[in-house]
Design a protein that fits this description.
Blueprint: E1 2-10, E2 13-16, E3 31-38, E4 41-44, E5 50-51, H1 52-67, E6 73-77, E7 84-89, E8 95-101, E9 105-111, H2 112-133, H3 137-158
Antiparallel strand pairs: 1-2, 1-3, 3-4, 3-5, 6-7, 7-8, 8-9
Helix pairs in contact: 1-3, 2-3
Length: 160
């Protein structure tokens, strides 16, 4: 089982994605976090803050490497932290092993399709929410492009 949730740091409060209703005034740096759990192992928790917009882009870049370039392994770094997620396909199976070495080694294996579905669902929710809350035209365009990229990858994997 895999769970992925997006949070924002708004005036020192942790706000889940679905509860965020305030316009994003500074879309250049959006403080937030991801909470990633696989098989009851917490890889990253909501207390680990970073630029959530960049983090989501880096995560989608990793998926793109796995899907389009058919990479066996990708590393996704947090933009401002020394945290690196490792996603590695397990040979001859439809699973992926996820590892993080922060604050200690954690790893779990999960169905590749479940992994993709979870990340696609949460990333779509994130980018759709950003399109509602960001007023800056440049950043609206950026979030629209990222949402389209997510949907393209989703279609490549889940629609056959």
């Amino acid at each position: 089982m895999i769970s992925l949730k997006t949070y924002f740091c708004i005036e020192d409060a942790i706000v889940p994605l679905d509860k965020l209703s305030k316009n994003i005034l500074d879309p250049e740096y959006i403080e937030g976090s991801l909470e990633l759990k696989i098989n009851n192992v917490t890889f990253v928790d909501k207390e680990t803050w970073d630029d959530i917009s960049d983090l989501w882009s880096y995560l989608i870049n990793g998926l793109e490497e796995l899907i389009v370039k058919n990479a066996d392994q990708v590393f996704v770094s947090f933009p401002g932290e020394s945290i690196e997620l490792n996603f590695e396909r397990v040979a001859s199976s439809e699973t992926i092993q996820v590892k993080v070495n922060w604050p200690g080694l954690k790893q779990a294996t999960v169905s590749l399709i479940e992994f993709y579905k979870t990340i696609f669902a949460e990333s779509e929710r994130y980018y759709e929410k950003m399109l509602l809350l960001i007023q800056n035209a440049e950043y609206i365009g950026y979030n629209q492009m990222e949402l389209e990229r997510v949907r393209y990858l989703k279609e490549k994997v889940l629609v056959k």
